[in-house]
Structure formats: C-alpha cells, structure tokens
Design a protein that fits this description.
transmembrane; methyltransferase activity; 0% strand; Four Helix Bundle (Hemerythrin (Met), subunit A); mainly alpha
C-alpha cells in the first residue's frame, strides 16, 4: 500500500462517511427516507436508469475500496501509467469529494438519492446551485474520472464510463420530474443555470 493508496482510501472513507451520515441524519432527525433509488412505483424509464445507477455505482465503490486498500492483492492489475497521472486522478477525486459534500450540505433536507415522487422538496438555487443545477453529480463525475486515472484498467474504465452515462440519464429523468413539480420556476432556473458547469 503506497501513499497514493492511502490518499485514495482516505478519500473513499470521507466520501462514504459523509454520504452515510447525511442519510442517517435525515432519517433519524427528520424522519426522511432519502434513499429512494430504484424504488417501486416510478415510470419504467426512471426505474431502469436508477437500477443501473445503483448497480454500477456499487461496483465502483467496491472497486475503489478494493484497489485503495490492497484487497485485490494484485488480482486485477492496472495499466502502467506515469506517476503524475495517478496523482492527477487523486486531485480530481479529492475535488469531486469536496464538491459533493458541499452540494449535499446546501441541499439540506431536500437531498435525495434518486427521484422522490412521494414528498415535496424545495428547489435549491443558492450556493453551488447558482453555478450548476447538479453540483452533487458534478462531484460524482469528478470522482469517477479521478478513479479511472488513479487505477486505470479496462474494468475500471468501463465501470467509470457506465457511471458517467447512467448519471447523465438520471439527471435527464430528474429534470423531467423537477419540470413537472416546479413548472416555470424550474424552467427559468434551467435557462439561467447550466446543467453541469458554465460550458455544459
């Protein structure tokens, strides 16, 4: 286990603890079941995308932990890459974790994992949400890209690309839900604020 792996494992633990703590706080303090990914009663397109997100993000998390902790024991080798590539991946991952945590905090009690059609939440437009409609997803995308650079091989790149595609499809489903829920307010927000960052 080298210093890159220690940094990677630390980032994984920070991400996992913040994610789990947010779910726990919403459940215990406010009685909100925020994890609604892949739940029944949603349109088929939404349910299929959410199930894909659930599966591939779980695989990504398992691989991230396995590589950074040395659990694979050399079973799945990574491509030889220059040291600066993996350190660039570490920096991108760290930035992604930071953006995700800040975005999650700004969402307060409106934060959900998946599309929640059972409760009315507020449309958050302040903080990071002034610059991106989906900063938490931007954080995830940066973590996927960073992971592919830290531990490049065919499996990890394939899982990372699947996650990038599926999260984009989930965003499209969420946009339909928000448009139905908030109407003109969301439409104006969508015109004024990019989906990802200032250029997309």
């Amino acid at each position: 286990m080298d210093i890159r792996d220690v940094v990677s494992l630390s980032l994984f633990i920070i991400f996992l603890v913040s994610y789990s703590l947010k779910l726990w706080l919403l459940s215990k303090k406010q009685g909100i079941q925020a994890h609604v990914l892949g739940k029944k009663g949603k349109p088929d397109a939404t349910r299929i995308v959410e199930t894909g997100v659930k599966f591939f993000s779980a695989i990504w998390g398992i691989l991230w932990f396995a590589y950074s902790s040395g659990s694979l024991g050399g079973w799945l080798k990574t491509f030889s890459a220059a040291g600066w590539v993996s350190w660039t991946g570490s920096a991108i991952t760290a930035f992604g974790v930071l953006i995700f945590i800040i975005a999650m905090l700004y969402m307060k009690s409106s934060w959900r994992v998946g599309i929640d059609k059972t409760t009315q939440t507020a449309l958050v437009r302040d903080g990071l949400y002034r610059f991106s409609r989906n900063p938490a997803f931007v954080g995830f995308d940066l973590m996927f890209i960073g992971f592919m650079l830290m531990y490049p091989n065919t499996l990890n790149i394939g899982v990372g690309v699947c996650n990038l595609i599926l999260f984009h499809l989930l965003i499209r489903q969420e946009e339909k839900h928000l448009n139905q829920t908030f109407g003109e307010v969301y439409q104006k927000y969508a015109v004024d604020t990019p989906r990802y960052l200032w250029f997309i």
